[in-house]
Amino acid sequence: MFPLISAIVLRRLLLAIPTLLLLSLVVFVVLRMLPVDPLVLLLPASATAADAAVLREQLGFDKPVPQQFLIWLWQAFNGNLGTSINFRQPVAHLMLSSLPATLELTLAGLLLALVISVPGGVLAYALYQRRRETAADLAVASMQSIPSFLWSLLLILTFGVLWPVLPFSGRVGVGVALPDITGFAVIDLLLVGRFDAWLTALSHLLLPALALALGFAPLVIRVLRSSLIDAASEPYVEAARLRGLSETRIVWRHMLKNAALPTVTMIGVQFGFLFGGALLVEMIFGFPGVGNLMVQAVRGNDLPLIQGIALIFCVLMLAITVIVDVLYAVLNPRLRTP
């Protein structure tokens, strides 16, 4: 098992190098071709052309684009993603401050999506070719037709306004200071033993995570149901039925493990969309993550920060690909056969 996993990780890491270089180059060139001047917000209204030229030289924008890219690439290789034009802070510091909140929201959304979709997929399979199958398909299709941002508005209206039982703005309650340990609020507050503040952070996380989950779960339900239908005709399922095992035990103990393979692959492929949806959900709920940071970067033509966000997003997607490949190898015994 370990040699297989090592080979997968090594192969993915080797492929990641040209992928990161290519994406960095594309994003860098596209940003420099945009008809915007990042110096507009930095210069006062009384600034002269000479002042703009001096500032442009200080920031390196006066050099040819290939030279700018090589300088940025070398700095990024050494852990320096540049300095944000708007915030006047290192991009790496801003990303490290915001990324844990987005990851926490995305992972919570994924967890809730699995809690909803795994029983939902099994239920949809149980209703296959039965009278209630149409009602189940209609319910899943209805969920799938509502995007995460609309789920966000519906949840805010329901649980924040009409029935105000959950907070819908911010990451924690007013006056709660987050300890600086991992950046994940629900973990850090548990580590320092502040359980009241932990409940506050959890309640603030619930609605945005649920909005993400409700937009993502229908995809998992559909794939899991189709995989279970395919698995139902496999010989090992027929053998289990001949042994007298109950249908519930066959599904949960035997079929679900094999049906999980395409589901895991789909989740890995769609995780990028889930992460992208989290950026929009963050803005609606005022969640202080990468989404809000990205909006401020775009509004301020903050090219170094936009470049850094794009690079971190690519790294995350490559890491997710590695994790999915490793999970696939663990779950699929045929890949472990020499």
UniProtKB/TrEMBL annotation:
<dbReference type="GO" id="GO:0055085">
    <property type="term" value="P:transmembrane transport"/>
</dbReference>
<dbReference type="InterPro" id="IPR000515">
    <property type="entry name" value="MetI-like"/>
</dbReference>
<feature type="transmembrane region" description="Helical">
    <location>
        <begin position="105"/>
        <end position="128"/>
    </location>
</feature>
<feature type="transmembrane region" description="Helical">
    <location>
        <begin position="259"/>
        <end position="285"/>
    </location>
</feature>
<comment type="similarity">
    <text>Belongs to the binding-protein-dependent transport system permease family.</text>
</comment>
<keyword id="KW-1133">Transmembrane helix</keyword>
<feature type="transmembrane region" description="Helical">
    <location>
        <begin position="305"/>
        <end position="331"/>
    </location>
</feature>
<feature type="transmembrane region" description="Helical">
    <location>
        <begin position="149"/>
        <end position="166"/>
    </location>
</feature>
<protein>
    <submittedName>
        <fullName>Binding-protein-dependent transport systems inner membrane component</fullName>
    </submittedName>
</protein>
<keyword id="KW-0812">Transmembrane</keyword>
<dbReference type="Pfam" id="PF19300">
    <property type="entry name" value="BPD_transp_1_N"/>
</dbReference>
<dbReference type="Pfam" id="PF00528">
    <property type="entry name" value="BPD_transp_1"/>
</dbReference>
<dbReference type="GO" id="GO:0005886">
    <property type="term" value="C:plasma membrane"/>
</dbReference>
<dbReference type="InterPro" id="IPR035906">
    <property type="entry name" value="MetI-like_sf"/>
</dbReference>
<dbReference type="InterPro" id="IPR045621">
    <property type="entry name" value="BPD_transp_1_N"/>
</dbReference>
<keyword id="KW-0472">Membrane</keyword>
<keyword id="KW-1003">Cell membrane</keyword>
<feature type="domain" description="ABC transmembrane type-1">
    <location>
        <begin position="99"/>
        <end position="324"/>
    </location>
</feature>
<keyword id="KW-0813">Transport</keyword>
<feature type="transmembrane region" description="Helical">
    <location>
        <begin position="197"/>
        <end position="221"/>
    </location>
</feature>
